[in-house]
Design brief:
Distance between the termini: 46 Å
Number of strands: 15
CATH class of the largest domain: Alpha Beta
CATH architecture of the largest domain: 2-Layer Sandwich
Mean pLDDT: 96
Helix content: 25-40%
Length: 338
Amino acid sequence: MDKVRTLIVGTGAMARHHIADILTQQDTTEIVALCDPSPQQLALASALFEQAGLEVPTTGPELEPLLQELEGELDTALIVTPHAYHLKQAIACLESGLDVLLEKPMVMNAREARKLIKTAKQTGRLLVVAFPGSLSPQIRTAVKLLRSGQLGTIQSVNGFAWQDWKKNTANTWRQIPKLAGGGFLFDTGAHLLNTTCDLVGEEFSEVAAWLDNRGAPVDIIGTVMAKTKSGIYVTMHGCGESFHTWASEILVIGTGGLVRTGIWGERLEVQKGDPKYARGFQPRKVKLPPSLGVWQQFLKVRAGTMENPCPPEVGLRMAKLWDAICESSQQGGVPVKL
């Protein structure tokens, strides 16, 4: 099988994490080029190849000239850049005939999401949003279980994520509103919003939210209360100023049992209402095969062996929710109807 030839757009810390994962999958993927306007970031990314005993790929500071230079030599692109650049860069890659894995959040708002969906349809290329939760075996299993009715009718969902995000992202683009589009609840919290939406499985009808910057340029802490069209009640809370840690919890309560998981799909526990499953009133761990990360799942979707759980419509779903959160918060928590 020919290796998938890919371009990495953005070579910051998160991109280097992805590159390290991809370099463990050299039997399936060849990284052909790196794109970043920062010589320092390119140097750090290039060092990963040198450490692995590999030739450093082609590098370039600008995307479109690189796409022109490598025309016919690329199959895919992985975009890991500040949020404000996602739309333009994803469109450029799609229109160049590449399948795209795009870091979260997909875009800045619902208007941009609709534009990107239109481009993906016009080009006929694959677009996957890199949400590790939705791409994980844990969340896919949880969704299947919830939709099967084995846990009854979903009644309520409670999600929570916390991290010492304010301190760790100070003086970076993540706290520049025009580049980031939001703060903790739109960055790390994007996983919380998306995975909760995935588990809920239906549109929201009403959203109320409160965001507080805690002295930063962007939101650091936030609470969301929402109701779905069928009457599921949902709460989501993000705390970006905690002690030195990062963690999450999502609890889905049904009339016949519950699911406990995390926003990244880092675990899955299930408790059924039948007494034989209620040993000690504790959920039971579900054992699933480990995942090598979002790139491996992207390749499965691209090969047609896995249905795409994160198409651009998923990005639109989250963008609509984020727009409503911002609108409600700006009005002091007044409920917004969707």
